[in-house]
Design brief:
Among the domains are: 5-62, Immunoglobulins (Immunoglobulin-like), CATH 2.60.40.10; 293-433, Chondroitinase Ac, Chain A, domain 3; 445-576, Immunoglobulin-like; 604-690, Death Domain, Fas (Orthogonal Bundle), CATH 1.10.533. Strands 12, 15, 16, 17, 19, 20 and 23 form a 7-stranded antiparallel sheet that branches. Strands 21-22-18-14-13-34 form a 6-stranded antiparallel sheet, covered by helices on one side. Strands 24, 25, 26, 27, 29 and 31 form a 6-stranded antiparallel sheet that branches. It has 693 residues and is α+β, with helices and mostly antiparallel strands. 25% of the residues are buried. The protein has 14 helices and 34 strands. Helix content is 20%, strand content 27%. The chain is globular, with a radius of gyration of 36 Å. One of its GO terms (cellular component) is plasma membrane.
């Protein structure tokens, strides 16, 4: 055999080790890169040839990750009015590249610039002006205090005189309507003229309610109106003023309130004080948050098209209390993520609040996830994490390792999980492979192209690799909409295995007579860790194409996406780039569209009367075991029964979880079937007669 000539190619260019000393080609034709440089990021291929044949190795992709480094500190600024100066630095020596770590530490620091002896000097003449201002302010305060004292004295005298006037006129005046004004005397300054009651009375829209004995003696008196005393409450708006806030609360017309709730205007007013400050300062992105004012009747918050919701059962909020509750999906770039080590983020990071509010019973937070769970044996170790006020993440529970001290219960389904919790805050689901089998994440591959007709020779296709959750797809659709892109076909599923193999993307079957690819290598790859960690922004690859002339309008090609030594998908593309492309809807027709907030009984499928009768029938332990425990097994909620056993009404918590699991289909059949199998025919009769099945 004739001797073979061996060359190493870097992005299809022959490597000459005599010109670049960083490359070393050994006698047995191995390529050694002495020191990884950013410029060495490329695709490397070994080519061997002789007069008989030519062989080419598979391409090896080298990605050099560059961690960021700090520039020197800038010079200290001038000494400021607060006797401090500061200096800054930037993470640009070098900047983080290809996913390298960002610099640790602060970008800015400050310190005292007078060695602790901070003496502020006044400009010439400033001292006289300051002292003059203080004297004037003191004199004005004395004058105002005297004026207030005189006015108070005169008003007290006027009230004293009014107490000894005709008592019969004062008694009859009390029964005039609130909008009644007594006739004025000819002389408006006459001391015997009665005061204009409407000048200081607060306004109260809507019919009045009866007041219990002793309330009329309180300082919060409400003027009478012409309305009937016992009319049903309309949409009622109450404004409560205090020294720092003005809060407005609307009550629905069909909300039934007890006397204590109606009359306790002070407790209603506290809604302004009890709102979580965090809810007002947190940035709420459009389409990623929702809020509603909820009371004792409960309700449901839903962020449309994301799979994220919060169920607040009746009785969760104490009587007489109202909270502005919120539900927010945190954007990746604005929060630290809960994963660490080999863990991967499986759900969006969601905040619900207000944090620290008192709950009488658990709420149910629903989160979508992308863990593949259809295997007979568990491949995942799943954990729920919460974020502290300091920003650190703490593990709340590990699924399957709950104890009596576990503060939550997690009901796991194929595409989402439901978390029963009694403490609102920020939560996320993470997981890692459970040896010996590697776990799989469910991904979606979405293909986009420019929507507008192409007027240049260049044309591009973008493929996103995202979590298989509604929220992740919505985020990409919103991003592409802002870029003028359009989804070409329904996203394709892909199982991504915890195998440390990259995701490879390539384009094929391009009509080379009319088109050429600008990609220098045969394929592109997304590193395994970028996908598995779940901490990256929506990952995508772009295929840039160029047509031979503007007359070429048809494009047909094939795009292959697969994990190395794993599963893959193929996109078959045939389109006219000179026409306006119509967007493909990723949502199936007839999919339920839930409102962002539902308040009171309308938020629940099971009427309260039926709920109470089911609880009364099943809460008490039964010798035959036909109680709430059997209901939990029938509904598939029996993974850790001790959690429900610690609640005052185990059946009520089970029904809350059932409501959360069936918010989309509102299916009463599963509950009715479970009750029928338990022999609870009397409850079935109630559901048939009282419920709207």
């Amino acid at each position: 055999m004739p001797a073979a000539e061996v060359d190493w190619l870097k992005n299809e260019d022959v490597i000459d080790s005599s010109q670049d000393s960083n490359f070393l080609i050994t006698i047995d034709h191995n390529l050694i890169i002495k020191q990884a440089r950013l410029s060495d990021t490329a695709n490397y291929t070994c080519v061997a040839r002789n007069v008989v044949a030519k062989r080419r190795s598979s391409t090896a992709t080298l990605i050099v990750y560059v961690d960021g480094g700090w520039t020197e500190w800038a010079k200290w600024s001038a000494c400021g009015t607060e006797c401090t100066h500061w200096r800054s630095r930037e993470c640009q020596a070098p900047p983080p590249i290809n996913g390298g770590k960002h610099c640790s530490g602060g970008m800015m620091e400050s310190k005292n610039c007078t060695e602790g002896l901070c003496a502020r000097t006044l400009a010439p003449g400033m001292g006289v002006a300051v002292y003059t201002g203080l004297v004037v302010a003191l004199l004005l305060s004395v004058v105002m205090a005297l004026c207030v004292g005189v006015l108070a004295y005169r008003r007290r005298c006027r009230h004293l005189h009014g107490d000894i006037t005709d008592s019969s006129s004062a008694l009859t005046a009390a029964f005039h309507p609130g909008n009644y004004k007594p006739p004025r005397q000819d002389n408006p300054l006459h001391p015997s003229a009665p005061p204009d009651l409407t000048a200081t009375a607060g306004t109260f829209r809507g019919p009045l309610f009866s007041l219990p004995q002793g309330v009329n003696d309180s300082p919060h008196k409400i003027p009478m109106t012409d309305s009937l005393l016992l009319d049903p409450l309309p949409s009622l708006k109450i404004k409560v003023y205090n020294s720092s806030t003005l809060s407005s609360l609307e009550l629905p017309a069909d909300m039934s309130l007890s006397d204590g709730e109606i009359l306790s205007l002070k407790s209603v007013g506290t809604v302004g004080r009890e709102r979580d400050y965090h809810s007002h300062t947190m940035s709420r992105e459009s389409g990623l948050s929702t809020s509603a004012t909820l009371g004792n009747l409960g309700g449901r918050l839903t962020i449309p098209n994301t799979g994220v919701s919060l169920l607040v059962p009746p009785g969760t909020i104490p009587q007489g209390k109202f909270y502005e509750m919120y539900l927010i999906i945190n954007k990746w770039e604005k929060t630290t993520l809960p994963s660490e080590g080999s863990q991967t983020v499986l759900s969006p990071v969601v905040s619900c609040g207000p944090s620290g509010m008192l709950l009488n019973r658990p709420v149910v937070l629903t989160l979508p996830h992308c863990a593949q769970l259809d295997t007979p044996t568990p491949d995942w170790t799943l954990a729920l994490k919460t974020q502290t006020h300091q920003g650190a993440w703490e593990e709340v529970l590990t699924v399957g390792e709950e104890t009596l001290s576990s503060p939550c219960y997690l009901q796991l389904e194929e595409e989402c999980c439901h978390v029963l919790m009694e403490q609102l805050g920020t939560y996320g689901l993470v997981g890692q492979s459970c040896p010996p089998r590697p776990a799989c994440k469910r991904l979606q591959l979405a293909l986009f192209a420019p929507r507008a007709p192409c007027l240049s020779l260049d044309f591009s296709l973008r493929i996103y690799c995202i979590h298989d959750t509604p929220h992740a797809l919505k985020e990409v659709l919103d991003l592409e909409r802002s870029l003028g892109g359009v989804l070409l076909e329904h996203p394709k599923p892909l199982l991504f295995k915890d195998s440390y193999h990259n995701l490879r993307l390539s384009i094929h079957d391009i009509p080379h007579t009319y088109w050429r690819s600008k990609l220098l290598a045969k394929y592109q790859e997304i590193p395994f860790y970028h996908i598995w960690s779940g901490s990256q922004r929506p990952l995508h690859c772009t295929f840039s194409l160029e047509r031979a002339s503007l007359a070429v309008s048809q494009l047909a090609c094939k795009i292959c996406v697969r994990q190395v030594e794993g599963e893959g998908q193929i996109f078959q593309l045939h389109t006219d780039i000179q026409e306006t492309l119509l967007p493909h809807s990723p949502l199936p027709s007839g999919s339920p569209c839930l409102p962002s907030s539902q308040v009171g009984p309308y938020a629940f499928r099971l009427p309260d009367s039926i709920r109470q009768k089911i609880c009364a029938s099943l809460d008490a332990p039964s010798a035959r075991g036909c109680d709430w425990r059997l209901l939990a097994r029938s509904l598939g909620f029996d993974r850790y029964l001790n959690y429900f056993a610690t609640k005052p009404s185990p059946t009520g918590v089970l029904l809350d979880l059932w409501e959360a699991c069936h918010q989309g289909d509102a299916d009463l059949v599963s509950l009715a079937t479970a009750l029928e199998e338990m022999g609870k025919s009397e409850v079935l009769v109630v559901m048939t007669t009282d419920g709207d099945c």
